[in-house]
């Protein structure tokens, strides 16, 4: 490709990519892919977007009655249904973005082999699709919390946003990493399914963090807190469940420190995922 700059001519290699920078340089294309994936999700559905609001509402009722009332978990954790629903919402965002990002290149093999476009576009779009699907769930959780007297501070609202940012960065990095490997080795997809299955138990979703702190050595609890999912889940608990809890409730120790470390770790994973993606990108068309 020849690009004229004044009197000079610069030869630019066709299809040369700048990685994630090119993705956000093609924002219109990114929005088209995201819109297409969302439309496919609700194609043939009578109620469409309504299902995004019905599912978390039904989950709340099930958790409240089956776990909170019948199993008596409301006695150990106040507002247990809101506690578990807040955690599941952010973990579901991670699971959907990570899983779909891993499959995104294989699912779009026909497009990748026909035309050139930044291949990072596919795992990034998977993250945005997952985010769009998560927002109605967050809205339902917040409405339920308001019904029970939710009155958050600015810091608690900021905690919810920070939790979303951590998961968005983490899932995009992992999606690029495993998505690139999955093109050649489809075992990666099965490995991701195991990670996704364990994610809800590797973070304080079904239980409170102090149950872990009381059972494991301090060094192991620190490793547990360094898992980016743990601070992300606790940020959602801090923003949604904590304002409803009695004043003696304690958030995760050093929550903001571990949240900052989670963001740094997620950024490192994103950079590493981009590095592996760029190294394997030349084989995509051949292996697909």
Automatic annotation (TrEMBL):
Its main location: membrane. It is found in: Cell inner membrane; Cell membrane. PANTHER family: INNER MEMBRANE TRANSPORT PERMEASE, TRANSPORT PERMEASE PROTEIN. PROSITE patterns: ABC_TM2. This is Transport permease protein. It comes from Microbacterium rhizosphaerae. InterPro entries: ABC2_TM (IPR013525), ABC2_TM_bact-type (IPR047817). Belongs to the ABC-2 integral membrane protein family. It is a multi-pass membrane protein. It comes from the Bacteria. The chain crosses the membrane at residues 46-73, 79-98, 128-151, 157-179, 191-209, 255-277. Keywords: Cell inner membrane, Cell membrane, Membrane, Transmembrane, Transmembrane helix, Transport. Residues 47-280 form the ABC transmembrane type-2 domain.
């Amino acid at each position: 490709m020849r690009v004229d700059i004044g009197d000079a001519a610069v030869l630019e290699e066709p299809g040369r990519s700048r990685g994630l920078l090119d993705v956000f340089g093609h924002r219109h294309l990114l929005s088209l892919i995201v819109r297409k994936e969302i439309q496919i999700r609700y194609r043939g559905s009578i109620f469409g977007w309504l299902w995004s609001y019905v599912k978390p509402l039904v989950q709340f009722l099930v958790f409240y009655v089956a776990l909170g009332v019948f199993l008596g978990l409301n006695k150990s954790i106040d507002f247990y249904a809101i506690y578990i629903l807040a955690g599941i919402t952010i973990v579901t965002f991670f699971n959907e973005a990570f899983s779909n990002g891993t499959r995104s290149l294989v699912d779009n093999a026909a497009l990748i082999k026909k035309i050139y476009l930044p291949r990072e576009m596919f795992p990034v779009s998977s993250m945005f699709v997952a985010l769009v699907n998560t927002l109605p769930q967050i809205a339902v959780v917040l409405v339920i919390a308001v019904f029970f007297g939710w009155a958050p501070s600015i810091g608690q609202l900021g905690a919810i946003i920070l939790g979303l940012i951590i998961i968005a960065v983490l899932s995009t990095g992992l999606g690029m990493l495993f998505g690139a490997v999955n093109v050649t080795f489809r075992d990666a997809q099965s490995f991701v399914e195991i990670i996704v299955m364990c994610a809800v138990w590797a973070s304080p979703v079904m239980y409170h963090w102090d149950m872990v702190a009381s059972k494991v050595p301090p060094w192991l609890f620190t490793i547990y807190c360094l898992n980016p999912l743990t601070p992300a889940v606790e940020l959602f608990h801090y923003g949604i469940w904590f304002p409803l809890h009695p004043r003696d409730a304690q958030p995760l120790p050093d929550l903001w420190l571990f949240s900052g470390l989670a963001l740094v770790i997620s950024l490192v994973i994103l950079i590493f995922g981009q590095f592996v993606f760029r190294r394997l990108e030349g084989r995509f068309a051949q292996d697909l």
